[in-house]
Each structure stands twice: as C-alpha cells, then as structure tokens.
Amino acid sequence: MDFGIKNRLSRIFSPKTGRTVMLAVDHGYFQGPTTGLRDMENIIPLIPHADCLFVTRGTLRNSIDPRTDTAFCLRVSGGPSILGELSNEDITTSMEEALRLNASGVGMSIFVGAKNEDRTISNLGRLINEAQRYGMPVLAITAVGKEMGRDARYIGLACRIAAEMGAQFVKTYYCDDFHKVAEGCPVPIVIAGGKKLPEMEALQMTENAIKAGASGVDMGRNIFQSDSPAGMIKAVRAIVHRGTSAAEAFDMYQKSRKAPVAEVADARMEKV
Ligand code: R5P
Q1: Best mutation site among 26, 72, 93, 189 for ligand 1, i.e. most ligand atoms within 8 A of its Cβ?
Q2: Confidence band, pLDDT 50/70/90 cuts, at residue 195
Q3: What confidence tier does 229 reach under pLDDT thresholds 50, 70, 90?
Q4: Domains of the chain
Q5: pTM (predicted TM-score)
C-alpha cells in the first residue's frame, strides 16, 4: 500500500488502537431529511467525538466547518431515491472533487444479489482504479436489499467480493456468526448501526461486533436518533477504542442523559 493511502487511512483508523468510530450522516442522499438529520446543526456537537464523518459533499459544503480536525470519508455514489430501485446507483462525485475537499477516503455502495449487482461491483472496480492513482482509500458498503437475508453467508460473500475488488475497508451489517464474516475478509470491516434500536441493544451489538473482529463502526441512526446523541457516541467510542463492556458503556450513556445539555454539547473528548 502506498504512502498516501496509508496516511489517509491513519486519519480514519486511530494509529493507537487500529480502530475507528465513524459517524454516518449521509442518509439524506437517498432518503431526504432523515429523523435526527433534518437540521444538520444537531450533529455539530458530535463531530469532535468521531474519528471520521461519513458524509456527502452537499453536507460538507452546507453544514461543516472546514476548520474541523475530524477526518471525513466522502460518499460518492447515489442516483435512486428511496422511492426507486436502490441498486441503480452510480458514481456521482468525482475523484477531483474528493481531492479538492481533502477527503481521507471515498465510499460507495455495492448491491450484491440485487438487480444491478454487476454494474455496482464494476463501478467499485472503476472507482478503486481511479482512487489508486491519487492515494485515496475506498470504502465499499455492502448494501442489503429488502429481499436479502442478513446472515453470515450472504454478508461474508458481499464483504469478500468488496475486498477482492480492492477496497481498503468495508462497511456492512452485524449478523450472527459475524466472526465468520471477519475471518473471510482480509481488510478491516466497520459495521453500520442500521435502524434505531434501544440504546443497550445498539451498544451490545457494538461490543459483539468488535469482539468478533470488526475494526469499528460507521454508525448513524443509533447515535443521532438517540435521546442523548453525545452520550451514545461517547459510549460507542469507549467500547471501540477502550474495550469497555456494553453494560459499562450503557451507564456512561445514562449518566450523560442526566447531564446538563450544555455540558454534554461542549464536552470534547480526547481521540482515544
Ligand atoms: C447507508 O448506506 C448509509 O450510507 C449509512 O451511512 C449507513 O447505513 C450507516 O448508518 P446507520 O448506522 O444509520 O445504518
């Protein structure tokens, strides 16, 4: 791997732990004003707690302070809305734009087993070819169609294909026997949170994923739709980077619910 790719990856994955807490806030690219992201001001206090934001160029331009020291990985695929055929995605943001915005990585979805799986996987190959020229890491996101099962066999298949195409890291969903997915994937895996769960369940899923070999999270709704988004991201961070148990992390989250809002919003946490 060349210097540029390694250097950018070290902005996403903490060199101290080899893990990452990515905050996913890209949902609007296909589902519009998502609960918790209607006003992007809500995510500003969370940014210092994330190693990396997963974000569109629109949100960067409209809502993010360019002086931030949190890295970001740019979503570069899109096309269909939630009303259309989701697997019909294409690459929508150029590599030149990713470089101009100073992205630490670019990410796109592949739809294994869905209508347009072949085109989305070919697009991933093309994106990686271009990214290689500029030292840009690529995150492949294994999107799961409504009709697809979320078991280790399917998710393992999708992750391995992404790695074989050359993605430097993969985002997927947690499932039972996740260790089989991790064992079959030669690059780091981060898990998406999926639909909002009760906080303890989301934290337990995080602990289980890390113990089964995940290198972190790229989590959105289970953080920004929580009644204490700052408390949740700090709790997730403790599990990912410090090996805190889900039960202890849940205590942290509960304490933050009782803390005055200003105290939570102003809290800055050391990266690790
Ligand atoms: C889906 O592809 C979106 O890109 C999100 O980034 C991803 O699903 C992670 O967000 P959440 O934890 O809300 O599922």
Answers
A1: 26
A2: very high
A3: very high
A4: 3-197+212-225 (3.20.20.70)
A5: 0.94
The answer, yes or no, to whether any atom of ligand 1 lies below 6 A from the CB of 54, is yes
Q: What's the pLDDT tens digit per position in 199-224?
A: 999 999 999 999 999 999 999 999 99
223 lines ligand 1 (CB under 6 A): no
Answer yes or no: is the C-beta of 107 below 6 A from any ligand 1 atom.
no
Q: What is the mean pLDDT of residues 119-147?
A: 93
Six-digit token string for 220: 């959105």
Question: Which amino acid is present at 241?
Answer: H
- Span from the CA of 26 to the centroid of ligand 1 (angstroms): 7
Q: Across-strand partners of 172?
A: 191
Question: At 119, which helix (H) or strand (E)?
Answer: helix 117-134
Cβ of 220 less than 6 Å from ligand 1: yes
Contact (Cβ atoms closer than 8 angstroms) between residue 57 and residue 39 = no
Distance CA 117, CA 120 (A): 5
CA angle 31, 55, 212 (to 5 degrees): 95
pLDDT at 147 over 90: no
Residue 43 C-alpha from the chain's centroid: 15
Q: In DSSP terms, which residues pair with 105 in a beta bridge?
A: 73
CA of 103 to the centre of ligand 1 (A): 18
Residue 171 designated active-site: yes
Q: What is the pLDDT of residue 268?
A: 47
Tokens of 96: 């030149």
In this prediction, residue 149 has a pLDDT band, given cuts at 50, 70 and 90, of confident
